[in-house]
């Protein structure tokens, strides 16, 4: 039986490991103290509770993610309204509404006052087909038409999906998301999130599964270099040992782009990054939301700093994407400003308003949250195959056709498995 060494225990590496474990001997090397990478939970000392490094929103149109969860028996660890509803608030205009997509492909929701974006015109919807037809050079802003459909839906969708400003973000990548979601109808757009934490949904079940398949997971183990000979990887080095590879053995490199570029001679990858900031506020009693906020468990905001707010039992968490623009803001100022916006948006939708003063809070800035999803960076993304016969690449930064997402990471793990000649569920696998 061949032995596959997987370097990197983020969701791309875990996806590859889970796929391979029934077919090969697997060893996974993770530099950090636990797996999960950029999608992980941890106990925060300051807030004295478990939080996620950042809120992650999934949509029902994420086939590889749901397959991964089903394989691990972990689908039940997600929560969501079970229908395509998105409560919104416009901080500039003091206006709240709920987007209620119709489930089928025919977008009846565009016609109803209570279902569509307030103030939009039907002409603006043309932007969706412009995005889906966009060429590789086009930016999102080139495809949008001025109006509230753009300002209140497509711009926030773009900035959260691409984590890049619309003037620089790739229209092709956003067009791919539109094709898989809005164009397929509301049933492809149901929002889902981890009910108790990212690790509980994506990592712990994978660890259990890998253990049951006798796969080896080595946390706290950084791979520092690889040795190559005759067009193959022949060994990998960790600080404590050299692992020699047999003739049938292979490697999947599932580390972030700059690490992979440092380990694989001649490899190029994305080299510009965007940050995401998450503000976590500790609550001393659970909120009691009403109406659509209660149904959805989250809300989108436009016109302010906060972009998405997620209601957890003990914590209110807010996401700010493309956050390089706030690099100069002091954390306290960000936390105060966001808290003021939360008062404005949430108080009318809660049985009891939020506490006046900012509660204990924590701002986490993931400086390299994703590669910058610009047309230039998109061109730098390599496929899974490399110049070395027994080495494949995985990671959200490889050429998945998607921006940096959980779906892209999980898909990339499957593609890497296929590139090495193993069985895989990826429909387009090589
Ligand atoms: C704050 C935030 C919010 C996000 N929100 C969303 C969202 O709402 N929806 C969504 O779909 N996606 C979201 N994403 C993106 C998503 O988290 C990523 O696309 C995905 O987790 C990337 O997984 P990966 O395995 O490709 O990379 P990573 O998670 O970066 O995994 C790489 C792993 O390799 C390890 N490693 C590095 N060097 C070595 C080495 N030399 N040896 C061994 N191990 C090594 C790292 O420690 C890491 O665990 C968000 C990301 C962030 C940061």
UniProtKB/TrEMBL annotation:
SUPFAM superfamilies: FAD/NAD(P)-binding domain (SSF51905). GO terms for molecular function: oxidoreductase activity. It is an enzyme of class 1 (oxidoreductase). The keyword Cell membrane does not apply. It comes from the Bacteria. The keyword Oxidoreductase applies. Residues 11-281, 315-417 form the Amine oxidase domain. Signal peptide: none annotated. Its EC number is 1.17.8.1. InterPro entries: Amino_oxidase (IPR002937), FAD/NAD-bd_sf (IPR036188), SQase_HpnE (IPR017830), Zeta_carotene_desat/Oxidored (IPR050464). Keywords: Oxidoreductase. PANTHER family: BLR3003 PROTEIN, PROTOPORPHYRINOGEN OXIDASE. This is Hydroxysqualene dehydroxylase HpnE.
């Amino acid at each position: 039986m061949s032995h596959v060494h997987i370097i990197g225990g983020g969701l791309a590496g875990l996806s590859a490991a889970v796929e391979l474990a029934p077919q090969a001997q697997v060893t996974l090397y993770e530099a950090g103290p636990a797996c999960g990478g950029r999608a992980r939970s941890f106990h925060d000392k300051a807030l004295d509770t478990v939080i996620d490094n950042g809120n992650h929103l999934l949509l029902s149109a994420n086939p590889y993610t749901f397959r991964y969860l089903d394989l691990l028996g972990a689908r039940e660890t997600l929560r969501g309204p079970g229908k395509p509803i998105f409560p919104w608030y416009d901080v500039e205009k003091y206006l709240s509404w709920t987007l209620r997509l119709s489930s089928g492909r025919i977008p009846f929701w565009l016609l109803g006052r209570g279902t569509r974006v307030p103030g939009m015109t039907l002409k603006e919807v043309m932007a969706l087909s412009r995005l889906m037809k966009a060429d590789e050079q086009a930016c999102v802003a080139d495809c949008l038409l001025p109006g509230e459909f753009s300002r209140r839906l497509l711009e926030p969708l773009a900035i959260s999906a691409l984590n890049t400003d619309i003037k620089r973000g790739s229209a092709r990548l956003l067009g791919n998301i539109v094709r898989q979601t809005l164009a397929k109808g509301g049933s492809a757009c149901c929002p889902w999130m981890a009910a108790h934490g990212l690790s509980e949904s994506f990592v712990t079940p994978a660890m259990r599964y890998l253990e049951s398949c006798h796969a080896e997971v080595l946390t706290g183990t950084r791979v520092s270099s690889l040795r190559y000979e005759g067009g193959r990887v022949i060994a990998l080095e960790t600080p404590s040992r050299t692992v020699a590879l047999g003739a049938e053995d292979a490697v999947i490199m599932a580390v972030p782009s700059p690490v992979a570029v440092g380990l694989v001679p001649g490899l190029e990858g994305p080299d510009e990054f965007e940050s995401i900031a998450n503000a976590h506020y500790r609550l001393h009693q659970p909120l009691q939301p009403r109406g659509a906020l209660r149904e959805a468990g989250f809300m989108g905001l436009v016109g302010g700093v906060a972009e998405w707010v997620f209601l957890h039992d003990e914590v209110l968490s807010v996401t700010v994407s493309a956050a390089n623009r706030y690099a100069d803001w002091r954390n306290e100022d960000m936390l105060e400003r966001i808290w003021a916006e939360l008062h404005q948006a949430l108080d009318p939708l809660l049985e009891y308003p939020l506490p006046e003063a900012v509660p204990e809070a924590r701002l986490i800035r993931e400086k390299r949250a994703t590669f910058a999803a610009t047309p230039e960076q998109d061109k730098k993304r390599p496929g899974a195959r490399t110049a070395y016969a027994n080495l494949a690449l995985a990671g959200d930064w490889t050429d998945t056709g998607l921006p940096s997402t959980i779906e892209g990471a999980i898909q990339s793990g499957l593609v890497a498995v296929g590139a090495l000649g193993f069985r895989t569920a990826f429909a387009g696998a090589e």
